[in-house]
Design brief:
The complex is a heterodimer of chains A (215) and B (107). Chain A is built from 12 helices and 4 strands; from the N terminus they run H-H-H-H-H-H-E-E-H-H-H-H-E-E-H-H. Chain A is globular, with a radius of gyration of 20 Å. Chain B has a domain of 74 residues: Cyclin A, domain 1, CATH 1.10.472. Classes of the chains: A alpha/beta (215), B mainly alpha (107).
Chain lengths: 215, 107
């Protein structure tokens, strides 16, 4: 720990986007982080590693899980029964929060939200998009989900129930979208490309195999 | 956006404007705040996610609505660390002064 306490002066070199004077809260972050490092509570290397981990978590991980569930019914069953254990089979650690995977069917379309804050299945999807954290999404997703989905261009037939899941600090949800028709011939990699972040939040469906894909 | 009897954070079911669906790249300092929080919650178990949220809710209505997302996080992290005695307000005050006196190079 003593080693780290002498290197803190060198830990703010990497990519900086903080042009101009720092805001009060940017300065507060500097102060808190430097004090924690000086006191040996944590190290600059750990913060750096944490950011690397964060950058390594993207919706591609969730897509991998979904593609596997689409192509392996036994895996899907395990995923729906015990999300963390099934993800662990693929080398994905979803701790510390619990994870529930909710399946879209011909009768039910699922959507996730965190009305109180911004809880999100980060190990599978990365950091949440701004709109997910916005007061408008949090307020409206549980009040008028069809209208919210409409803003994403998603129209769910009236005879399909919409089920909105409100996340908590301890329990996160991920939507298992429906496998699009016409994908019987596709392998797991090709299937994963159809699975978007928004489809795992439930505000859209998975891409059709012929649709133009955006990375 | 809140109404009587609800906490400022308790907005599920209220109305709101159309979503702004533009994507947002996280700034580096925002990622640092996030990484700090994850370390304090995960590896070191000094904070919990609920404590973070409680600290954010206690910022009060004006601050809750006006501050940016990670502004609220670092404000709550600092408040929680003070409350737990991990840091003192004197230490933070001194450090902020020291930061202000640094030459204005890229941080």
């Amino acid at each position: 720990m003593s080693e780290a306490s002498h290197t803190h002066d060198h830990d703010h070199a990497p990519p900086t986007d903080e042009a101009g004077p720092l805001s009060y809260y940017q300065r507060l972050e500097l102060a808190v982080r430097e004090l924690l490092i000086e006191k040996g509570v944590l190290t600059a290397d750990e913060v750096r590693a944490g950011i690397e981990d964060m950058d390594g978590r993207s919706p591609e991980r969730g897509a991998l899980v979904v593609a596997r569930a689409w192509s392996d019914p036994d895996f899907k069953e395990r995923l729906l029964a015990d999300g963390p254990a099934a993800c662990a089979e693929l080398g994905i650690d979803v701790s510390p929060a619990r994870l529930a995977v909710v399946e879209n069917t011909d009768d039910v379309h699922n959507v996730i939200v965190c009305t109180l804050c911004s809880c999100y299945p980060r190990p599978l999807l990365g950091l949440p998009p701004s709109w997910y954290k916005s007061s408008s999404y949090r307020a409206r997703a549980v009040r008028e989900p069809r209208a919210v989905l409409g803003e994403f261009g998603t129209v769910i037939p009236e005879d399909v129930a919409i089920r909105v899941h409100d996340s908590t600090a301890e329990l996160r949800y991920m939507v298992l979208p429906q496998r699009p028709p016409g994908t019987e011939e596709l392998d797991s990699d090709a299937l994963a490309e159809l699975v978007t972040r928004d489809s795992m939040i439930g505000v859209t469906t998975a891409l059709a195999p012929t649709a133009e894909r955006h990375a | 956006m809140s109404e009587p009897g609800r906490g400022v954070h308790d907005i599920g079911g209220l109305g709101g404007d159309a979503l702004d669906r533009s994507e947002h790249e996280h700034e580096f300092w925002e990622k640092r705040v996030d990484a700090l929080m994850m370390l304090l919650v995960g590896k070191y178990e000094i904070l919990t996610v609920d404590e973070l949220r409680r600290g954010i809710e206690q910022l009060g209505e004006g601050a809750y609505e006006e501050l940016a997302y990670y502004d609220r996080w670092i404000a709550s992290i600092a408040a929680n660390l003070l409350e737990k005695g991990v840091l003192t307000s004197e230490e933070i005050g001194r450090k902020l002064e020291e930061i202000d006196e640094r030459p204005p190079v890229a941080s």
